[in-house]
Write a structure and sequence with these properties.
Oligomer: single chain
Order of helices and strands: EHEHHHHEHEHHEHH
Keywords: ATP-binding, Cholesterol biosynthesis, Cholesterol metabolism, Cytoplasm, Kinase, Lipid biosynthesis, Lipid metabolism, Nucleotide-binding, Steroid biosynthesis, Steroid metabolism, Sterol biosynthesis, Sterol metabolism, Transferase
Strand order of the largest sheet: 2-3-1-4-5
Bound molecules: adenosine-5'-triphosphate, (3R)-3-hydroxy-3-methyl-5-(phosphonooxy)pentanoic acid
GO biological process, one term: isopentenyl diphosphate biosynthetic process, mevalonate pathway
Low-confidence stretches: none
Mean pLDDT: 94
Catalytic activity: (R)-5-phosphomevalonate + ATP = (R)-5-diphosphomevalonate + ADP
Strand content: 5-15%
Number of helices: 10
Organism: Albula goreensis
Distance between the termini: 44 Å
InterPro entries: P-loop_NTPase (IPR027417), Pmev_kin_anim (IPR005919)
CATH architecture: 3-Layer(aba) Sandwich
């Protein structure tokens, strides 16, 4: 199925990282800094969770949150999503970008090579890939617990090898401040969006 691209972004920042590494925290920080006129956050999991919640009568907003509610359904959501991706790898990417009109897109939750490949194929000049990293100790402090069948499966490990990330962001207490690590990314986004202040 050919992709009807609704707009032509200047820059697409595709984030990935393990559970509780801080993908949402870091992308929310970037969104606040650049502002809603310049950038929007695309969550590949949002259209998945919306349809999954509708089919099962669950709370969509809770599934989008960072609490324990979504963890009860994670394994089943992963399986549900993988069945859709098997038929059409770009299914959730297309849905997530359908109403994006800002010049800078932040994709907060890529998890598979097929996610990256979709953006590299559709937007080869605009796409940059960023990995958010945090130690297991830090992640546990944020509420993560290793779960067999999830943390050793594609949803969490699909981008562990074979990706030459443009940036690695370390989101631990002993890492440099996020604003410092994100400085060049902010500059690139402001340049691409034509909002840089001299
Ligand atoms: N640098 C930070 N300082 C303070 N709190 C943080 C930081 N990074 C993450 N957190 C907190 O840790 C928790 C997990 O972060 P976040 O939800 O961004 O992780 P995630 O990678 O999106 O996880 P998931 O894949 O489970 O959605 C949140 O409560 C978030 O507010
Ligand atoms: C089902 C899934 O989309 C859940 C993601 O939830 P979250 O980004 O961790 O809040 C993960 C996946 O698609 O493998």
């Amino acid at each position: 199925m050919s992709t009807m691209l609704t707009t032509n972004p200047k820059l697409i920042l595709v984030f990935s990282g393990k559970r509780k590494s801080g993908k949402d925290y870091v992308t929310d920080l970037i969104h606040k800094r650049l502002g809603p006129e310049v950038c929007c956050i695309l969550r590949l999991s949002a259209p998945l969770k919306e349809q999954y919640a509708r089919e099962r009568g669950l709370d969509f907003k809770e599934l989008l949150g960072s609490g324990q509610y979504k963890e009860q359904y994670r394994a089943d959501m992963i399986a549900w999503g993988e069945r859709r991706r098997k038929q059409d790898p770009g299914f959730f990417c297309r849905l997530a970008q359908r109403s994006a009109t800002q010049p800078v897109w932040i994709v907060s939750d890529a998890r598979r090579l097929s996610d990256l490949q979709w953006f590299w194929t559709e937007y080869p000049n605009q796409t940059r890939c960023i990995r958010v990293e945090a130690s297991e100790h830090t992640r546990r402090q944020r509420g993560w617990e290793f779960t067999s069948g999830i943390d050793d499966a594609e949803s969490e490990c699909g981008l562990d090898q074979g990706v030459d990330f443009d940036w690695i962001i370390r989101n631990d207490k002993d890492a440099p401040p996020l604003e410092e690590q994100l400085h060049l990314l902010f500059s690139l986004a402001e340049e691409k969006a034509g909002t840089e202040t001299s």
